[in-house]
Amino acid sequence: MKRTTLAAAALFLALGSNAQQALMGGASAVSPEINPDGSVTFRLNAPKAITVQLTGDFLPDTLMDTPFGKFEVAGSVDMVQNNEGVWEYTTAPLDGELYSYSFVVNGTRQMDPSNIYQSRDVATWTNTFTLSRQKGDKGFLYSVNKVPHGDVAKVWYNSPTLGLQRRMTVYTPAGYNDPDNKTRYPVMYLLHGAGGDENAWSELGRAAQIMDNLIATGKAVPMIVVMPNGNTNTSAAPGEWSAGEYQPSLMGGGPDFGQAKASMDESFLDIVSYVESHYRTLPGQYSRAMCGLSMGGGHTFATTLRYPKQFGYIGLFSAGLSVPGGDYSTPFAQQAEGNAVFASQMKALFDARPRLYWIGIGKTDFLYQSTADLRAYLDKAGYPYQYMETEGGHIWRNWRIYLTEFAQKIFK
Question: Whole-structure pTM over 0.70, yes or no?
Fold first, then answer.
């Protein structure tokens, strides 16, 4: 046995470093390579390929027509093959940010075999990389830095309203689990968009890294962050509950598992009840914040209307808006006009005096008009709110910004 082991080791060493990489499943090109000036070089060793393109959210976006409106999709650019058969492309210097990309080889999309970092958005996987140009920029905030770290747990809870055992992701700040720590904390409920699940904000949204860095620098107060699953006919992310390894979809988060027993807003206090009975939380409206992106913004909008005295801080990130009895196919202004139930709910909400009603939207977001309609309604009624408008559309690059901004404004 010993002679066999030694012989195998000798053969492994004799094969050389390139062969070692191949045997271990490694890559033969450095990609992506972040250059000193902030530009990034991508490489793909595909000597027999006829065409190779790079597609990424750092390239100029294009608009794609969908049943839900115009969506921004990542742009693409041709890569050039060098004398060694390696395809290459170098970007202009990029700002600090978390970026996504993939390759298109002979018309077929594929991942970068040299980059182990990947993320899933609905049913699409992309490679990712994080670039930081200076301390405090977005890339820095989205990175794991030498600061005290909170804990992230996947937690199962019972939802009597939905009749399901369900899973959520819970971030607790650094020091929460210290044996001598008796501190109670405020809670931010952070909701994902259509096609997402309880993993979306912790993976694509970099919520834990953002909170660690903001708390460590004193820009946000220590808080618990609860990231539930907003698909009320499912229990957890695809492949992570009893329904098995199904293909997620944009609407409903997966296949048709039957009609949910209740909506997210109707069932949301099940989540609050669990959190407040299992974690050291501060009591009362002004120790709770609720915010969400897209569908999750719609859930936030509906839940805070249904329970106007429960949340002291409210954040709508590119929110999908619909009033009671309305539907998303009708312009929001038409839904709201003359709707006595909606007017009564809005009055009750603002009579409860939330300390912050915060709205963020991208200039080219397909939901821009509905947000403009809501702002016009708030202005006419004299209801106070804060507003942030950013470049770009319905994209994670904006939602990470909105979380960063919102988290710094709450519980102070």
Answer: yes
